[in-house]
């Protein structure tokens, strides 16, 4: 039996297939695009090419577009799946930070179980989508935004709403502010909002980053500075939601 976890976020869709020994035998990530339904169809086609069908697998969907996966046996919330996946990846009591496309989550894990969590408001300028919008406004990629931010300083973006924050950035561009300084302000804004969430949530002493930014060294660096403790990550962290969904498949009858 194969166990399939599908995490359709607002910006990317992650798929993980596990065997009965909880080993990952397939994983993939692709842009969600304009339609979660079309993305789910693409994932189904790929799975069928691999010989993974309804007859020999169980499937759980999670994420922003989880209701768009008609072939899933069940859906679970992102908190449940990210917690389960993070426990598999990090095998530790810890606080997990996930900067997603639509929201940012801070999850406490003890003994592999979610004991508490907090999320930001969807309008808050503390999400991965906000970073993408700001990078596009500055005409750079996310990695280039991070590289620029390393060279910047002394710019603050205070708006809590993405729309107003974008207006701030446009005003800074118009006033002749350096692109490096604006990039610094953008990422500093994200990190400050994560710090605020973590302060409200409370910490278990160790922080791990999951989601699409978990391999961004500068994001890890600035979060570590803000939280005054090393924020760690592993490449598998971006698949935390889909890993958790795949693991939960074992509970299905």
UniProtKB/TrEMBL annotation:
Domain ATPase BadF/BadG/BcrA/BcrD type per the UniProt entry, residue ranges: 4-248
InterPro entries for this protein: ATPase_BadF (IPR002731), ATPase_NBD (IPR043129), CoA_E_activase_dom (IPR008275), Dehydratase_Activator_Redct (IPR051805)
Gene Ontology MF term list: iron-sulfur cluster binding; metal ion binding
Protein's UniProt keywords contain Iron-sulfur: yes
The protein's required cofactors: [4Fe-4S] cluster
Protein origin, superkingdom: Bacteria
Keywords attached to this entry: Iron, Iron-sulfur, Metal-binding
Name under which the protein is recorded: CoA-substrate-specific enzyme activase, putative
Organism: Clostridium cadaveris
């Amino acid at each position: 039996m194969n166990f399939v976890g599908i995490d359709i976020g607002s910006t990317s869709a992650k798929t993980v297939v596990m065997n009965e020994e909880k080993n990952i035998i397939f994983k993939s990530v692709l842009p969600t695009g304009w339609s979660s339904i079309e993305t789910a169809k693409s994932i189904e086609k790929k799975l069928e090419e691999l010989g993974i069908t309804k007859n020999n697998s169980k499937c759980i969907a999670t994420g922003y577009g989880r209701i768009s996966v008609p072939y899933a046996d069940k859906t679970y919330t992102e908190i449940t799946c990210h917690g389960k996946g993070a426990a598999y990846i990090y095998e530790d009591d810890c606080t997990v930070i996930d900067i997603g496309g639509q929201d940012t989550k801070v999850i406490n894990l003890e003994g592999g179980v979610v004991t508490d969590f907090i999320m930001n408001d969807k309008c808050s300028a503390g999400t991965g989508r906000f970073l993408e919008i700001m990078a596009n406004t500055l005409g750079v990629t996310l990695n280039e935004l991070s590289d620029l931010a390393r060279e910047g300083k002394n710019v603050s973006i205070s708006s809590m709403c993405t729309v107003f924050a974008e207006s701030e950035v446009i005003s800074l561009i118009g006033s002749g502010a350096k692109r490096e300084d604006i990039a610094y302000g953008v990422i500093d804004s994200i990190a400050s909002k994560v710090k605020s969430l973590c302060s409200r949530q409370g910490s278990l002493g160790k922080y791990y980053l999951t989601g699409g930014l978990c391999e961004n060294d500068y994001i890890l660096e600035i979060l570590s500075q803000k939280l005054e403790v090393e924020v760690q990550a592993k490449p598998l962290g971006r698949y935390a939601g889909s890993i958790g969904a795949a693991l939960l498949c074992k509970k299905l009858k």
